[in-house]
Amino acid sequence: MNSSVPASLVQKAAGAPKAELHIHIEGSLEPELIFRLAQRNGVKLAYESIEALRAAYAFTDLQSFLDIYYAGASVLLTEQDFYDMTAAYVERALADNVVHTEIFFDPQTHTERGVPIATVVAGIDRALADAETRGLSSKLILCFLRHLPEEDALATFEAALPLFDQYRHRLIGVGLDSSERGHPPSKFERVFAKARAKGLKLVAHAGEEGPPSYVYEALDLLKVDRVDHGVRSIEDPALVARLADTRVALTVCPLSNVKLCVFDDMTKHTLKDLLDRGVAVTVNSDDPAYFGGYVNDNYVATIEALKLDDADVYTIVRNGFEASFVTPAERAALIAKLDAYWHRDHGEHGGGVGVSAS
Ligand code: ADE
Ligand code: ZN
């Protein structure tokens, strides 16, 4: 551990009730579960063993990761598979004291293999409904794959229309993910306009590998409520000022950014600069099974490398609740829970922190 960061702050952050706003559920598939589902479903994998698969997790950029991520998702066929994947993530989230999570899923990855969107959503929703009884609230965000034509996204949106009604309280928004370079947000203006007209929340990955102009497009053309990643916004001071002024949050994923070589190492990460300039940054795990950790691992790595202090960490955790798609009353309750935790006496060694899930 970096000697200038007190162990108690790391423990305090780990024990804090928190939100996760950027997690691809398919990116929570651990190698062990990939192999178990492959065996259950008779799917042949390109890797001989769990170890061989894990050894392939040495990424040079976003695309090198996505190739393996889509291969891993190929084991998901039945409603029970989606339930099991989500239930495994729920255990990790609860262990990290996540009390609210907003989960992305990629329907096109599954429909192209003949799995109906209804099957995908039913399995994920069932696990999330179970999680509610254990103190984890959640929303679901349907993401379009940006490397595919907008016509495919429009067809996916039409196919999902009944589900937005059936799962009104869970399935609350749409997002945009997959290969960023060469696929600007402007490519998806029409489908986002339709989603907006339906009253859905809007998010998009932008400024992960792509330039600041993609963040402007996400804001101005797609009219997103949050920007996923957005870390390259730092290259454009006017954009940083606009993000700060409008409080459009960035769902930052520090371990992901280092694993995908957006930054050379964690000490080079710009999260603290963005925070200091008033941008509403949040900390999230992205694809935790692939990037070396769940949300608390992201907090620990960031606190240590960027020497965050108590006020920084409080602000980041609070930003997660401020930026979440809950009702004002739910938001107030979540922030009250954080405040009750944060301002109590944590003692010299973190006070043996931890929150009950209730
Ligand atoms: N899909 C899953 N993880 C992603 C990421 N980090 N960027 C874009 N698309 C993704
Ligand atoms: Zn992502």
TrEMBL record:
It catalyses: adenine + H2O + H(+) = hypoxanthine + NH4(+). It holds the Pfam family A_deaminase. GO terms for molecular function: hydrolase activity. The record marks 229 as: Important for catalytic activity. Keywords: Hydrolase, Metal-binding, Nucleotide metabolism, Zinc. Zn(2+) binds at residues 22, 24, 205, 286. Belongs to the metallo-dependent hydrolases superfamily. Adenosine and AMP deaminases family. Adenine deaminase type 2 subfamily. This is Adenine deaminase. It comes from Paraburkholderia kururiensis. The lineage of its organism: Bacteria, Pseudomonadati, Pseudomonadota, Betaproteobacteria, Burkholderiales.
